[in-house]
Design goal:
Elements (H helix, E strand, L loop, with lengths): L1 H10 L4 H19 L2 H9 L2 H24 L8 H25 L9 H24 L2
Length: 139
Amino acid sequence: MIFKKIADPLFHEFHLKDVLQVIIGASILAIPVGLQDEVWTLGETLPMINIFVFIILSLLFISLFTYYHYHKEDGLKKYHKHFTKRVVLTYILAFVVVAIILTLIQKAPWNEDWILAFKRIVLVTFPASMSGTIADFIK
């Protein structure tokens, strides 16, 4: 009951079931993509501007999918706060899942090079956030 009072303003219209679906869905692609040597190398070589474009693309794709599957009929005027929360929370959850996985396999070197860790996580979060979004849609 106390958790519900604390979490409801943040997760309104984004229930525990949705959170779990995003986490599991993000894991579906985070694991195979995160284990690829090519992604680790890309993280080392891509400039930071490309990494930020991946963040923007992830948010754009999550937004488009969420809009067309949840808000198309109603529009965003009434539900823009819920829409924004769902998009941002989906990306954050996928990012955290990827961060945990890459940290566990020691490919997110937080102490030595946190920028490299961040870049690798963003690269893997791109497909993970897509699979998390699609899994959230499954009822």
